[in-house]
Amino acid sequence: MSDDVRSTVAYRFLSGANMDPTAARAAYPGSRFVARAVSGEGAARVWGILLAIDPAQVDPALPECAVTADGRVYAAFADDAPTGDPRAVLAAARYWELPPDYVRALAAQAETET
Description:
Elements: H1 3-6, E1 10-14, H2 21-27, E2 32-39, E3 46-53, E4 64-69, E5 72-78, H3 86-95, H4 100-113
Parallel strand pairs: 1-5
Antiparallel strand pairs: 1-3, 2-3, 2-4, 4-5
Helix pairs in contact: 3-4
């Protein structure tokens, strides 16, 4: 991402329990929801949400990755992998209406881990 774009907006990809709307608003005040998004390919695909955030809110320890949302590819800062209690992850995925197949897989995982 070029420095001129970074000076006005940065993108943050949230997945797992980090997608919880209350937690996301608290972590990134003033952020704007862009779209549901996906990172990775094949079996390693992770669904989540893409936020436009103030560049000052970027954690420099987070890596940048390519995230696809609404047919566009964004350079977004993201955690290495989705984390959190499986029930919290499932609740956030349902809240954001992530793809049904992905939500079903999360539900099956939550059921086996609880």
